[in-house]
Design goal:
Elements (H helix, E strand, L loop, with lengths): L1 E2 L3 E8 L10 E5 L3 E8 L3 E4 L3 E8 L5 E2 L6 H17 L5 E5 L2 E5 L4 E7 L8 E5 L5 E7 L2 E5 L2 E4 L8 E4 L5 E10 L1 E17 L2 E8 L2 E3 L18 E2 L6 E3 L3 E8 L3 E3 L3 E8 L10 E6 L3 E8 L2 E5 L3 E7 L5 E2 L8 H16 L7 E3 L5 E4 L7 E6 H6 L2 E5 L6 E6 L2 E5 L2 E5 L7 E4 L5 E5 L2 E3 L1 E12 L2 E3 L2 E8 L2 E3 L6 E2 L8
Parallel strand pairs: 1-3, 2-4, 3-5, 4-6, 5-7, 9-11, 10-12, 11-14, 12-15, 13-16, 15-17, 16-17, 17-18, 17-19, 21-23, 21-42, 22-24, 22-42, 23-25, 24-26, 25-27, 26-28, 27-29, 31-33, 32-34, 33-36, 34-37, 35-38, 37-40, 38-40, 39-41, 40-42, 41-43
Antiparallel strand pairs: 8-9, 20-44, 30-31
Length: 492
């Protein structure tokens, strides 16, 4: 579902039959969204301005504020043009009223039929009959149209995904007491839809009511198209430390936001040391399980704990401790999304070669600032390395895919040079189930969603996303930047 301006949804579900793909957006709102009591399945929620979500679940995580998903104005202008072109197409097909039934038929592969909206008040049923693997465009004339209390039937050879009802002139379109078979194109119409359903897609200027939309996506009459798998944008969760299960850390700090889905044990630890105080305070420590925290401080925000909180000599000068309060984060959904991201990265073809000298030291050189720079390396090569340099110009984005289930970064002198930033370096440990980071300053974000990490005597200049972690490693505030893709067009 995509809405160019404001969306107000209540007791509503979106994407209920979609497969889960957390690299996509199921609900996109160009401006403000107000949503109470519902569920979004299949993908993420995106909104352009503000979001008020009450009792809304999203299996792919929290809503994302972004204006880069869809450019609504040219899309709608294009659909207005398409609708007008369909209405002006030469007739190829026929319509006939037979008593109280309107019969629409065609024998061509692509059929165009025009009918008057006045006929809808004269009949109680409509039949549509075209050959198999054929399309039909039914243009309905009239500016104020009531498409209501009609029994629509498709022949056995008519594919509902190949039927388009085109309301090119309509400024008002009222639907009620009807099960529409096929998709509706009414780009200039304010649509009121109650007590019915549409087996297809729908496009209008605005939409109100209680009608239900079923998943029968419209398929245009262009065959042989191959569309690349290409997400428009990849966003990373706004956490410096995001852990799916348990954490046990001592004698160090996390400079940004910290979230863990399981139990957390902290000793001599500080959180949010590089964050700025806000009013009202943000939630910067989120724990799904129980918290045991001795000696430390939570700077600049609240600590929200799903279970119990045993806290000794811990300061929270700019926020509150909120035990037995479910934190406002869906850990499982976030890691489903990150797993999809990791899988997507792992399938990308390498764009650059990896240099390994006689000492085992590693070098990677990025060249592009307009597309991803992708490198692949085995975990065994990291085991023997003492130095690892990633170089490239400012603005370059680097993905390093690391193969191997057991990864060790031990005593590696890692640097980024030439203008590239650690905020645009993603180290994708897509196979890792066990990982050691020791005596190493990691430059970039660690994406290791299934890994249990032993992290000691080192730091990560970026975010860390992993299954569990223990040790005394430090996380510096360097959130990964979003990745925007210029997706190639479909090949038709």
């Amino acid at each position: 579902m995509a809405v160019g301006d404001d969306a107000n949804l209540s007791n509503y579900e979106v994407g209920t039959l979609l497969p889960t793909n957390c690299l996509t957006y199921t609900l996109v709102v160009g401006n403000d969204i107000t949503y109470a009591n519902g569920n979004v399945a299949g993908g993420m929620i995106a909104y352009g301005n503000t979001a008020s979500l009450t009792s809304v679940t999203d299996e792919c995580g929290t809503a994302v504020q972004t204006s880069n998903v869809l450019n609504f104005a040219p899309i709608m202008n294009g659909l207005v043009s398409v609708s007008s072109s369909i209405a002006q197409a030469p007739q190829q097909g026929s319509s006939q009223q037979y008593y109280s039934t309107l019969e629409i038929s065609g024998v061509a592969q692509i059929n165009y039929v025009t009918i008057s909206s006045d006929l809808f008040s004269q009949v109680t049923a409509i039949t549509v009959n075209i050959p198999a693997d054929s399309w039909i465009f039914i243009t309905v004339t009239g500016s104020d149209v009531k498409f209501a209390e009609l029994d629509i039937t498709l022949s056995a050879t008519t594919n509902v995904s190949y039927v388009l009802w085109n309301f090119a002139q309509a400024s008002e379109l009222e639907l009620y007491g009807i099960s529409v078979k096929g998709s509706l194109l009414a780009p200039l119409a304010a649509i009121q839809f109650d007590n019915g359903n549409i087996d297809g897609s729908i496009c209008g200027s605005s939409f109100n009511g209680t009608g239900e939309l079923h998943l029968y996506p419209y398929v245009p009459p262009t065959t042989g198209c191959t569309c690349p798998i290409c997400p428009k944008q990849i966003l990373f969760p706004n956490y410096t430390f995001l852990v799916q299960t348990t954490v046990n850390l001592t004698n160090t700090d996390c400079q940004g936001r910290f979230a863990a889905g399981g139990d957390v044990q902290l000793y001599n630890y500080a959180i949010g040391t590089m964050l700025v105080t806000s009013s009202p305070p943000e939630n910067i420590l989120l724990v799904g399980g129980n918290l045991n925290f001795t000696n430390g401080e939570v700077h600049c925000g609240n600590a929200v704990i799903g279970g119990t909180a045993t806290v000794v000599n811990v300061g929270i000068p700019n926020g509150e401790l909120e035990p037995n309060t479910p934190p406002p984060i869906h850990f499982h959904a976030d890691f489903v999304y990150l797993s999809e991201v990791s899988k997507y990265f792992s399938g990308l073809a390498s764009t650059g070669s990896v240099g390994i000298d006689s000492n085992g030291d590693i070098s990677m050189t990025a060249t592009s600032t307009s597309s991803l720079n992708v490198f692949s390396i085995s975990s065994s090569s990291l085991t023997t390395a003492t130095a690892w340099q990633i170089s490239g110009p400012e603005g370059a984005y680097v993905i390093v895919n690391v193969e191997g289930s057991n990864v060790s970064l031990d005593g590696i002198d890692m640097t980024v040079t030439g203008g590239i930033k650690n905020t645009t370096v993603i180290l994708n440990f897509y196979d890792a189930s066990a990982m050691t980071i020791e005596a190493t300053s990691v430059q970039g974000t660690v994406l290791a969603v299934d890994a249990n990490v032993y992290f000691t005597n080192g730091n990560v200049d970026g975010s860390m996303y992993c299954n569990s972690v223990y040790g005394d490693g430090e996380i510096h505030l360097a959130l990964p930047l979003p990745i925007n893709f210029n997706c190639p067009p479909c090949d038709c």
